[in-house]
Design a protein that fits this description.
Alpha-D-Glucose-1,6-Bisphosphate, Chain A, domain 4; alpha+beta; eight-stranded antiparallel β-sheet
Length: 149
Amino acid sequence: MPETTTDDRVLSISRVIKTSPEELFDAWIDPRLLLQWWGPEGTTIPDYVFDVRVGGGWKTTMMNAAGDGQVCSGVYTMLERPRRLAMTWGWLRPDGTRGHETVINVTFEKVNGGTLMTLNQKTFQSPEQRGFHNEGWTSTLNKLARLFE
């Protein structure tokens, strides 16, 4: 069972994934792999941009089964293969502007049985927003874990 820790407006989720840190890191930066697990269960990614370099931007449209889409985007701020990556995250508002921005840090540590991956995202506008992201990331990371089963 994954360990999930939340504290007010900060989200932290840790999971052991059955693969090496190198392969898991690549699943975060290689679009061919990333598109297989990105977004909560039941979503698809019809549009995306990944400029995987420090300072490079990323953008995805997550489409649910009903055909409703949400766009999120950000910038890669750190890429240290295979140990750590960081990026910003913001949702696109209906008027085309970006909403509140959070920062995501993901670490990869070799452990017995695979890689301990820890995702931290902060700082949310409210505990409610953190809760929505906890649900979304938990579902998304279920898909990532299945990619390596």
